[in-house]
Specification:
CATH topology: TIM Barrel
Structural class: alpha/beta
Strand content: 15-25%
Number of domains: 1
Order of helices and strands: EHHEHEHEHHEHEHE
Largest sheet: 7 strands, parallel
Number of strands: 7
């Protein structure tokens, strides 16, 4: 159960294995690199949800990158049939999947990670990125009626104030959350660092000049 993953809702979170990015700061590295381990049978998932009707409001589908899953549409249809709201966490590299889910009313909230300014996107994602796909997803969400947020995990070695301001301008006027990087044993690359709380607060204040809906999370 989580009170944090879906704003204003009591939810549970399903993590999908596999990702097309290799972000060095990723907190779920085992989901990216060991996708065949610790699988949960789909039948078990829906037994879990059946038992929690009336107790949970929503299901968050996270990852990894959920849009890689071939059966994501049918999976969402099954969840919806039980009466739950669905929030999708995504890196935005599959705009057509997002659009399809929205058009079929299969998701209710989208949280898209914006990795960095366009110039440093590939560096931060750990691979070559089709930036037009990222731009298409951002533009679609900004101009759609679906509830959404953008979020950036801020890493000292990867983000400076110029980058954060560029992200803010890119997604404005939508909500943007700057999340403080947290080191762990499960990150892809060791030796990365977080900004201090005071530095994060100062950067946020500067970025609010470009996008009034910039907030801090996990500080």
């Amino acid at each position: 159960m989580t009170l944090l993953d879906y704003p204003g809702k009591v939810a549970c979170t399903i993590f999908t294995g596999g990702c097309n990015f290799r972000c060095p700061f990723c907190q779920n590295a085992s989901l990216v690199t060991h996708i065949d381990e610790d699988k949960i049978d789909e039948e078990e998932i829906f037994e879990f949800l059946e038992e929690r009707k009336g107790k949970l409001d929503a299901v968050c589908i996270s990852g990894g990158e959920p849009c890689l899953q071939k059966d994501l549409v049918s999976f969402c249809q099954k969840i919806k049939s039980l009466g739950f709201l669905i929030k999708l966490d995504t890196n935005g590299s599959f705009p057509n999947v997002i659009k399809n889910l929205v058009s079929q009313n299969l998701i209710d909230y989208v949280a898209m990670d914006v990795k960095n300014s366009p110039e440093k996107y590939a560096l931060t994602a750990g691979i070559k990125v089709e930036l037009e796909n990222i731009k298409e997803s951002i533009d679609f969400l900004k101009n759609s009626s679906i509830s959404h947020e953008f979020r950036t995990t801020v890493v000292k070695e990867l983000h400076n104030l110029f980058d954060l301001k560029a992200i803010s301008k890119w997604v404005s006027p939508s909500k943007l959350y700057f999340q403080q990087f947290r080191d762990s044993e499960d990150v892809i690359k060791k030796g990365l660092h977080a900004y201090k709380k005071e530095e994060m607060q100062k950067n946020c204040q500067e970025c609010q000049k470009d996008c009034p809906n910039v907030y801090l999370r996990g500080i």
